[in-house]
Amino acid sequence: MLVGKGYDDVTLIEASAELGGSCRTQWYGNHPYTVGPRHFLTRREDVWNFLNSSCPMHRYDAGHEFLTYVERDSAFYHFPIHRDEVAEMPDSSQILEELRTVPGPEGAANLEEYWLFSVGQTLYDKFVNGYSKKMWGIDSNVELTDFGFTPKGVALKSGSKAAWDDAISGFPLAPNGYDDYFSLATKDVKVLLNTLITDFDITNYRVKVDNEWHQYDLIINTISPEVLLKNAYGPLRWMGRDFLKIVLPVEKVFPDDVYFLYYANTEPFTRIVEYKKFYRYKSPHTLIGIEVPSFNNKLYPFPCKKDQAIHRQYIEALPSNVHSIGRNGSYRYLDVGLIIEQCLDLFKNL
Ligand SMILES: Cc1cc2nc3c(=O)[nH]c(=O)nc-3n(C[C@H](O)[C@H](O)[C@H](O)COP(=O)(O)OP(=O)(O)OC[C@H]3O[C@@H](n4cnc5c(N)ncnc54)[C@H](O)[C@@H]3O)c2cc1C
Questions:
Q1: Residue 31 sits in which domain range?
Q2: Is position 69 within any domain?
């Protein structure tokens, strides 16, 4: 796309041996998986068409459900929390009373208030309180002051039990997921793999590789801008993940329409996925991925207005031809669909 915009000498610098970052398909015991995106989601038809035209996808909008395990009820419930399932909960009368008296989320100042004001204490404790503290490594959800993304658009759902029935969701048809797209998207570009940028002189549009400075007219950055500006405005908080992989001697373990299992209790992990559901991989065995929150990597920007204000300082300090995009570059909890959206919008304005 950059080449089409008149930038005919484009270099992509990538530290690892392969393109694709978290979207790259990895293999374990002959099973495909990714550390990042499982489902592709978008509310924009043009974004879906853009990806689908170069990376053919299958869609599964309708049967696309998430379950949360609530240990105190010994039950799995849909997430977002579903109104019909409240009636089946052992403490439904207490919950219904709380739902009758909640003020509504307007005026909530943090994630805890958002949920308490939306669904009351009991549902908050079952689904969100422990989960969110575990997810972000914090003692109180009051710390989370940017919470618009959290409830997947809705705190208590009615109607279909699909998690995202207002979005298109899907996954690449190819057995290696998004990988072929990375080669296609970079066919007119000089790709430097195994190439770590070790220093930045961003005001002069320079980056250092192998002890040599390289200067560019335009820089598109996908790593955290505090690295680019050498922590000039202080650190940003991040959360990471350790990933555990287990092959099981059965063909499948998840119910048919379920794509994610969330765990909202004292177990150390937050989520389990069964990768073959996305890849439609055929095997008499199945690969399960378990996500354990950790501080070992930077995968989730901390949803707090204080950190976002620091991030804004970094962005404002970047010269006009440096664009910082992607989940880390924007310091926003973006999925692949939103990142493609961001790229399409950026290229329109270049
Ligand atoms: C657990 C988890 C689950 C997710 N699930 C989904 C999902 O279901 N659906 C979805 O759409 N999205 C999902 N995502 C989000 C998705 O993975 C990210 O949005 C996406 O990978 C971000 O792409 P990116 O290009 O911005 O960054 P990345 O994929 O992180 O790529 C950044 C690249 O920069 C390279 N790099 C870093 N530093 C340097 C350096 N100094 N020099 C050179 N290269 C460098 C890295 O090697 C990497 O390849 C998930 C993320 C996580 C963590």
A1: 23-64+162-185+243-299
A2: no
Residues 248, 178 share a domain: yes
The predicted-structure confidence for 137-185, as pLDDT tens digits, reads as follows: 999 999 999 986 555 567 898 888 888 878 899 999 999 999 999 999 9
- Residues 142, 168, single domain; the answer is no
Strand 168-172 versus strand 26-28 pairing type: unpaired
Q: 306 lies in a domain?
A: yes
Which residues in 196-231 are b (16+ Cβ under 10 Å) and which e?
ebeebebeebebeeeeeeeebeebbbebbbbbbbee
The two counts, helices (H) then strands (E), for the chain are: 12, 21
Query: How much is the pTM?
Result: 0.92
The two tokens of residue 115 are 């949920």
- Give the chain's domain count: 3
Q: What is the pLDDT of residues 52-97, one digit of tens each?
A: 999 999 998 767 899 999 999 999 999 999 999 999 999 999 999 9
75 in a structural domain: no
**Quick one: which atom of ligand 1 is closest to the CA of 327?**
26
- The protein residue with its alpha carbon nearest to ligand 1, atom 19, reads 335
Q: 175 and 224: one domain?
A: no
Closest C-alpha to 257, from 333, 172, 165, 334: 165
- Probe target for ligand 1 pocket from 13, 16, 18, 22, with the most ligand atoms within 8 Å of CB: 22
The pLDDT value recorded for residue 230 is: 94
Measuring from each residue's beta carbon to the nearest atom of ligand 1, which residues come in under 6 Å? 13-16, 21-23, 36-41, 196-197, 222-223, 241, 291, 299, 326-328, 334-337, 339
Q: Over the stretch 111-135, which tens digit does the pLDDT of each residue have?
A: 999 999 999 999 999 999 999 999 9
Atom of ligand 1 nearest to the CA of 13: 43
Mean pLDDT rounded to a whole number for the chain? 93
